[in-house]
Amino acid sequence: MKILITGGKSATTLKLLKAFEGNEIVLADYGEIPAFTSANYKFITLGEVNDAIAHNILNICLDYGIDMILPVHEFEINPIAKSKVLFQEFNIQVLLPEVTHVLKYFYPQQDITLGLKWYCFVEGELTFPAAASAHVLEIGKEKQLHGVYYIPEDLEGLTAILFTIP
Questions:
Q1: How do the domains of the chain map onto residue ranges?
Q2: What is the CATH number of domain 2-162?
Q3: CA distance 164 to 154
Q4: pLDDT in tens, 77-110
Q5: Does the predicted model carry a pTM greater than 0.85?
Q6: Cα-based distances in Å from 149 to 40, 80, 86, 140
Q7: Alpha-helical runs (H) found in the chain
């Protein structure tokens, strides 16, 4: 599977690579990108940030034969979630919750997520890491999580926080 992960210049995003081992990874970001190659991934540019984020990313997905996209920039979440059906029409899976559920999991305050573990789910099933607590597995199944989340064990009222970078 060929997976596009945005926010590729961020060290936080690079941590996600281990969740997708065995897949072809394309890291993408806005503006200039690093000019080196790796056996584990390749870098591409998404151009400059503009109002047509979802349209631009869809075109790039089609150009590069992407099967799955994981948007992680905070400003990409809503536009891509709103366009999820369009991506699906081109057989591109979007690792985000449905647009009607995005706000349940979207907490842009980065201090909340410091020190928390992240988990990758596809349609409620944990795909990374290999094991997790019963609490994490239960939340994933119950909420049918789809994407990458921080799941606090003890923060009152929060069940999952969508993985984003500012």
A1: 2-162
A2: 3.40.50.20
A3: 20
A4: 999 999 999 999 999 999 999 988 888 888 765 5
A5: yes
A6: 23, 17, 23, 9
A7: 11-14, 53-64, 74-82, 84-89, 102-105, 134-143
